[in-house]
Sequence to fold (576 residues):
Amino acid sequence: FQPISCLYSPELMREYHVAVRPQDLKPHIFAVAEETYRNVQSQIDPINQSIIVSGESGAGKTWTSRCLMKFYASVAASVTSPKGNEAVERIEKRVLDSNPIMEAFGNACTLRNNNSSRFGKYIQLHLDRFHHLSSASIQTFLLEKTRVAYQAPNERNFHIFYQITKGATAEERLAWNLPEGADYRWLPNSERNLEEDCFEVTRDAMFHLGIDHSTQNNIFKVLSGLLHLGNIQFSNPGDESLPCELEDKAKDFVKTAGDLLKIPVEELLESLRIRTITAGKQQQVFKKPCSRTECDTRRDCLAKVIYAKLFEWLVLVINESIYTDASLWTSFIGLLDVYGFEAFPENNLEQLCINYANEKLQQHFVAHYLKAQQIPTELKYASEGLQWSFINYQDNQSCLDLIEGNPLSIFSLLNEECRLNRSSNPDLFQTRIEKALSDNQCLSRDKFSKKPNFIISHYAGKVCYQLAAMVEKNKDPIPPELVHVLQNSKDDLLQKLFPIAENHQNNTKTQNRAAVVTVVSKFKSSLENLMQILNSTKPHYIRCIKPNADCKAMTFRKEEVISPKPFFTKSETSQK
Ligand SMILES: Nc1ncnc2c1ncn2[C@@H]1O[C@H](COP(=O)(O)OP(=O)(O)OP(=O)(O)O)[C@@H](O)[C@H]1O
Fold:
C-alpha cells in the first residue's frame, strides 16, 4: 500500500530480462514475466502463454497486471511506429493507456479497496515473429452495473463520476449542468479525495486512444445526465389510477436529465411512469401507471443500461485502437485479472457468477498442477520399467456440477424460471432447488435464516446465497418503453449505443428453450470461451497476498494472511 519505485523500476525489468537464469534472482513478478516471454521465444508447444493473477480484493491483481504490461511494453517494445505514422501513439503507449480508461469507468472505491475492479478482464498481448509487441486485445466480464444506481454504505460509485464532478472546468460545468457543490444521490462519499479522482489522466488516455474531445464531451454529458436521473424521486399519487407524482425539485432534475440525454421531458417521464400493455386477439394497447417502486426500478434500469452499453462501447473503441490484423502477430501472452472469491453477509447472483468463475479457475490450476507433478513421476516410473497411469483429478467437481451441470443445476433451474417467465416466489424456488439437487453434497441451506437461501460449499469455503430477486436479476429485463426512448434520443452517443435496428428487449416470451439469453447463460458462455483459450496456452500463476485488511502501508499481519478465509473483511467476519 505504498509504492516502492525501485521494486518495479525499468532497471529491475532489465535485470530480470538479461539474467541468464531469472529464476535464481529474488522472487519477483518479473521473473514469471520473463520466463513466460522466453517460453514464447523457445517456440515449444504450446507457444501461447497465459498468466493468471489471483488473490482477494485489494491484494494487488490490477497493480500486478499493470506492472506486467509495463514489463512487456519495455522488453518487447515494437521497433517501428504504427504504420509509419508518427501521429498515432506507439502500440505500447496505447496498450498502457487502456488502463486508466478501464479503471475510471470500471473501478470503484469499496470497503476493501479504494480502486476495486468491478469487472473481470483478460488482456492478450500479441507478439510478432520477432517477439515484439504488435497488437493487443481486451475481453471483459460481468461489469457490476448495479453500482451506478446503488452503492453500499461507505462505498462509492465508479470513479469517472467523481472525476467529472471534481475535475470539470467552469465552462464544462455549465455545459454538463454540474454546478460546483451540487448534491447527487448516486455520488456518495464524494468528500473523500482519492488519487483515482484525477480526471486529466483519463482524458489524456482517451485522447491517445482516439476518443476526440467532442466525443469525450458527449460521454461526460451523458454521465451527468445519469447523475440528474438519480436525483428524480417519485411519490405515491393520491389516486392509484394516476401516474406517480414528482416534487418540484424532482421536476427540475427530470428536465435537466432529459436535456442532457436529449430525450423530450414528457417522453422520458412517460417511459418511467407508464407501462404499455398489449393484450387480446386484437393486440389492444393499454397504458397503466407504474407503482412508485416500479418507477424507481425503471429509473435505475435506465441508468444501468446506458452505463453498461457505454462501457461495452469503450472496450470496443479501445480494442479498435490496440488491435492489428491477426496476420501481423504470431503468438500471445494473456493476462487474466478477475475478481477474487466473494462472500458477503448477503450474496446474490453476482457473487454466484464470480465464485463460479473462481471454481473454474481453481479447477484449471489443480489440473495443471497435478499434470506438472505427474510428468516427472511418469518418467521416473518409465526409467524403472514401471507403468504410471495419470490421475485426472477434478477438484470440487460436484460443486461445479451443482452450479452449471447438465441437465439439472442451479443455473439450469434459474434459466428455466426465466424461460417460463414465472414471477418467481423465492420460497417456491428454494423448494425446487432442494427437490432437484438435494443429492449434491455441496448443497445445503441456512435453516435458521427466515429468508429463502441456499449454501454452496466452494473450494474456498461455504457461501450462503439469498434467493430473493435472483430470478429477476437473471432475466435482467429492460422495459420496452425505456429502449424506445433511448432509440429516439437525439444524442449522437446514445444513437450509437442504441441503434434503432437492434432489439434490446430480452423478451423471454418469444424465446424458445434453446435461445433463452440470461445473465448466467451469457456469463457461462463467455467463461467457457475464456477457459478454452486458457487451456490452449501454457499457464503461469501469480498469487497476490494482501498484507492486512485495512489497506495500511508497511503493515504485515501474519494471522490475517494465513487465515483460511482471507476474503472476509474484519467487519464481515464479526457480523457473521
Ligand atoms: N506492489 C504493490 N506496491 C504498492 N502498493 C500496492 C502494490 N500492489 C497493490 N498495492 C496497493 O493496493 C491497492 C489495491 O491493489 P489492486 O487494486 O491491484 O487490488 P486487486 O487485487 O486488483 O483488487 P480488486 O479485486 O478489488 O480489484 C492498490 O491501489 C495499491 O494502493
Observations:
- The two ends are 27 Å apart (CA to CA).
